[in-house]
Write a structure and sequence with these properties.
By secondary structure, the protein is mainly beta. The relative contact order is 0.09. The strands form five sheets. The protein has a four-stranded antiparallel sheet with strand order 1-2-3-4, with no helix packed on it. It has a four-stranded antiparallel sheet with strand order 5-6-7-8, with no helix packed on it. The chain has a four-stranded antiparallel sheet with strand order 9-10-11-12, with no helix packed on it. Helices cover 5% and strands 45% of the residues.
């Protein structure tokens, strides 16, 4: 039966939840009996909503911000961006989400625990994106822009470092030996290649 009068209702991957929004209010229902599980007022018009493939996250974008909501603890918001999302894509396993916003920034966030997702990739795009998808192995992000140019991006710091190391015969400059890993620690970029300097790990590393 009819649950509500809203715009663009969507199911989660398991079909047990239905999310829909009207104006600035989001509704989350269970599909079995139609019970209202959660209702949230965002204060600005909602423009987009999307379930993650693992049914753990619900992404919601308004005209002023984009955020993730933990479906295991409803009401817990994890703010991603103070921009409206124009395109979004989850990785196949749901551990990462890509957001292209109205400021033409393409960002990838990884949900690794803690109080908020961790931003691991950020690039400013020159034109509009028509679509974007993660590769099945989740190592690359594919984008198609308004000129129908197709690009693939390495988005994980470890994968980017490995690709850079494979293209150099020596190591990087001293200040580029180390990068911030998802574990919050500094990692040497090319540990298998000879270094240009003999030195101890820095007390401060270059953080994103």
């Amino acid at each position: 039966g009819a649950l509500m009068q809203t715009e663009l209702p969507l199911f989660n991957s398991g079909g047990s939840l239905l999310a829909a929004y009207a104006g600035s209010t989001l509704f989350l229902h269970e599909t079995g009996g139609g019970a209202l599980l959660w209702e949230e007022e965002f204060g600005q018009p909602i423009t987009h909503a999307q379930f993650g493939p693992d049914d753990h996250w619900l992404l919601v974008s308004t005209t002023e911000a984009t955020s993730l909501w933990d479906l295991d603890s409803l009401g817990e918001e994890k703010r991603l961006d103070f921009e409206q999302a124009l395109q979004t894509a989850f990785s196949p396993d749901g551990r990462a989400v890509a957001v292209w916003d109205e400021g033409h920034n393409l960002r990838v966030w990884e949900m690794t625990g803690g109080w908020r997702p961790h931003k691991v990739f950020n690039v400013e795009m020159s034109g509009a994106l028509l679509s974007m998808h993660f590769s099945p192995d989740e190592k690359r992000l594919l984008t198609v822009d308004e000129h129908h140019e197709v690009r693939t991006w390495l988005w994980e710091p470890t994968e980017m470092a490995a690709e850079a190391c494979s293209r150099t015969a020596g190591n990087f400059e001293k200040y580029e030996f180390w990068y911030s890993g998802l574990d919050g620690l500094a990692h040497r970029g090319c540990p298998g290649l000879p270094g240009l300097w003999e030195w101890n790990p820095p007390q401060m590393s270059i953080w994103r």
